[in-house]
């Protein structure tokens, strides 16, 4: 089956054999992950969509793919409009679409290991309005027709030592046990892969660019734990590190273990646990109490060791970025430089440190109109040269044992237009407004989002993505619960109060479809701030990312004196932190690129 149309036809044939009138295809895995292993890339296999968030519904005579504003352009370039209709989220949802389109009296299938319990309830209610039925499948029909589906990774776990974690696994399990005591529960289910990696101070290689291992865990009120992971993935070093307080089981034994928790009070996170987990607990007659995963907030609030690690990783990464920016500036005008060559060279610069474990995501290397595709991924088919008088957007990051980085810079290749410079300066003004924000404790990210948008709004412009996401410590580059995004954007986390120790991105942008994209992204740390006479405890941001911002794209007259002062101080910090790592022409270039405006 070479074509996506063939794959869609094969799935429809399988659904008919299974007596199903439709099937829902989310982009996730059994752990509700945003980034998934190759074995779980069912949506991409079926549709060709390569984004990191989306879902689809297949019916006998029609099919729809659902994406948010980040992927409006991308989904249309990767998924055939002849076979699929494009649905915008949050304007619509799978449940609401099914309520209008499902065959009356039809049977719509879903994989209970790939959906939350709340989603199942919503979809079930929507289908009942059509006289239709939501049906849990025992085996995913895509897995039946996907003939060359990859196997799940067998990579071994590795220990994340305390010198980077800053807290022992035993201490973390004790904290969870104390929490269980407070809520009167016996056991907590951990299903999210980054929660398990953080709790047990282990990392893995089962998901591209995210150092996690496929596993489940039960943490008990006595501080012991049961870890469900394929035995071939555990070496003697990891077994010794886990110690006697952690009992090891095969990952395949997890469902049966849940069914044996009868009589226990079990805490489960409904947002991070699939419906099948609740079904197994119900079958075993456990008492379920819904609570947020107890590791989510401690993981988001970095301890001093993790903060120090992030600073070290950012400084190291900044040197690679500076060398790359100089290289692009010198090479682009010669011709022959394209998106793939550029992103490959940036990865090589990062690797020269000898400390790079992986990229933190597929680099977004977008030249000209490809830069307007928010989550663009260059391929041999889409690869564009870096052309004269255009913009080049590079969003990239590295995974280091001491921290995870994520940075975006936009460069002018040749001479930028007045409009490009105007838009870039507005994005910069929004970036500075957020970077310098002071706000009382208890403020949510959604309350700060408009700070970054105002300079664009004043010109009748905007961007269709959140302004900031949380970032892990040698974990996922997208980490909750905190987020800076508009209310109702469909991107969760914007209602989480920001707390000192959280790390987020600051990344406003502007995208002109078919022409260019602009984004300026630094990572920031939430810190306590002292202001004379303040009646409330205040927080603010400390910028963690250090690399030059393209001065040739800035209209100085559009900046206030305070904004110019911020930019000059920022560039002075870039020189102070990055220049000592460079020598010769690279050091000279950095100093010139960071000259006062």
Features:
single chain, 28 strands, 6-stranded mixed sheet, 20% strand, alpha+beta, 597 residues
Walk me through what this model shows.
By secondary structure, the chain is an alpha+beta fold. It is 35% helix and 20% strand. It contains 19 helices and 28 strands. It has a six-stranded mixed sheet with strand order 4-3-2-1-5-6. Strands 12-11-10-8-13-14 form a six-stranded mixed sheet, with helices on both faces. A four-stranded antiparallel sheet has the order 21-28-27-24. A hairpin with a 4-residue loop joins strand 10 and strand 11 (225-228). The chain is globular. It starts with a helix and ends with a helix.
Please sum up the structure shown.
By secondary structure, the chain is of the alpha+beta class.
What is the 3D form? globular
Give the strand line-up of the largest sheet: 4-3-2-1-5-6
* Helix coverage percent: 25-40%
β-strand percent reads 15-25%
* Helix-strand category: alpha+beta
How are the secondary structure elements laid out?
Layout: H1 4-17, E1 22-26, H2 42-47, E2 55-58, E3 63-67, H3 72-78, E4 85-88, H4 94-101, E5 107-110, H5 117-128, E6 133-136, H6 141-145, E7 158-159, H7 162-165, H8 169-183, E8 187-190, H9 193-200, E9 202-203, E10 216-220, E11 225-228, H10 236-242, E12 246-249, H11 254-259, E13 265-268, H12 275-283, E14 287-290, H13 296-300, H14 304-331, H15 339-351, E15 356-359, E16 364-367, E17 390-396, E18 398-400, E19 403-404, E20 407-413, H16 418-435, E21 439-440, H17 445-457, E22 468-470, E23 479-484, E24 503-506, E25 509-512, E26 516-519, E27 522-529, E28 538-543, H18 561-578, H19 584-593
Parallel strand pairs: 1-5, 3-4, 5-6, 8-13, 11-12, 13-14
Antiparallel strand pairs: 1-2, 2-3, 7-9, 8-10, 10-11, 15-18, 16-17, 17-20, 18-19, 21-28, 22-23, 24-27, 25-26, 27-28
Helix pairs in contact: 4-5, 14-15, 16-17
């Amino acid at each position: 089956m070479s074509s996506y149309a063939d794959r869609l036809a094969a799935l429809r044939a399988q659904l008919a054999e299974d007596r199903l009138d439709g099937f829902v295809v989310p982009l996730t895995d059994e752990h509700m992950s945003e980034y998934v292993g190759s074995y779980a890339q069912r949506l991409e296999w079926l549709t060709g969509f390569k984004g990191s968030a989306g879902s689809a519904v297949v019916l006998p005579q029609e099919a729809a793919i659902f994406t948010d504003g980040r992927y409006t352009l991308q989904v249309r370039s990767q998924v055939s409009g002849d076979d699929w209709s494009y649905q915008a989220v949050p304007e619509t949802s799978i449940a609401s679409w099914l309520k209008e389109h499902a065959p009356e009296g039809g049977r719509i299938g879903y994989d209970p290991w790939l959906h939350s319990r709340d989603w199942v309830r919503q979809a079930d209610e929507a289908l009942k309005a059509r006289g239709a039925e939501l049906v849990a499948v025992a085996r995913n029909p895509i897995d039946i027709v996907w003939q060359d589906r990859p196997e799940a990774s067998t990579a071994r776990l590795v220990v994340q030592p305390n010198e980077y974690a800053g807290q022992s696994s035993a201490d973390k399990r004790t904290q969870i046990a104390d929490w269980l005591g407070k809520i009167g529960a016996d056991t907590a289910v951990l299903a999210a892969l980054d929660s398990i990696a953080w709790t047990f101070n282990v990392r893995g290689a089962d998901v591209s660019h995210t150092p996690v291992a496929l596993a489940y865990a039960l943490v008990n009120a006595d501080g012991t734990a049961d870890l469900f992971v394929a035995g071939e993935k555990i070496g003697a070093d990891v077994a010794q590190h886990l110690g006697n307080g952690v009992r090891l089981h095969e990952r395949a034994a997890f469902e049966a273990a849940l069914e044996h928790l009868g009589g226990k009070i079990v805490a489960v996170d409904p947002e991070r646990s699939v419906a099948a987990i609740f079904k197994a607990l119900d079958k075993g007659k456990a008492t379920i109490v819904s609570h947020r995963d107890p590791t989510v907030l401690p993981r988001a609030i970095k301890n001093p060791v993790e903060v120090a690690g992030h600073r070290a990783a950012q400084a190291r990464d900044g040197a690679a970025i500076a060398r790359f920016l100089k290289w692009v500036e010198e090479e682009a005008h010669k011709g022959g430089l394209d998106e793939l060559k550029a992103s490959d060279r940036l990865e090589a610069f990062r690797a020269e440190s000898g400390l790079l474990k992986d990229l933190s995501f597929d680099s977004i290397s977008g030249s000209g109109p490809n830069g307007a595709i928010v989550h663009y991924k260059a391929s041999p088919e889409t690869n564009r040269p870096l052309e004269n008088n255009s913009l080049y957007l590079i969003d990239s990051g590295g995974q280091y044992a001491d921290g995870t980085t994520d940075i975006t810079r936009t460069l002018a290749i040749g001479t930028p237009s007045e409009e490009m410079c105007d838009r870039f300066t507005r994005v910069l003004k929004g970036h500075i407004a957020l970077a310098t924000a002071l706000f009382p404790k208890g403020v949510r990210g959604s309350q700060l989002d408009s700070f970054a948008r105002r300079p664009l709004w004043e010109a009748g412009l905007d961007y269709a993505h959140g302004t900031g996401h949380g970032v892990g410590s040698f974990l996922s580059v997208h980490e909750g619960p905190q987020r800076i995004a508009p209310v109702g954007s469909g991107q969760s986390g914007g209602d989480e109060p920001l707390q000192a120790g959280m790390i987020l991105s600051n990344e406003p942008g502007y995208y002109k479809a078919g022409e260019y994209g602009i984004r300026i992204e630094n990572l920031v740390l939430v810190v306590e701030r002292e202001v004379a006479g303040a009646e409330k405890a205040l927080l603010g941001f400390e910028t963690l990312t250090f690399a030059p911002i393209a001065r040739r794209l800035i209209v100085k007259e559009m900046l206030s004196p305070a904004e110019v002062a911020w930019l000059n101080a920022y560039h002075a910090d870039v020189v102070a932190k990055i220049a000592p790592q460079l020598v010769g022409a690279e050091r000279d270039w950095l100093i010139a690129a960071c000259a006062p405006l």
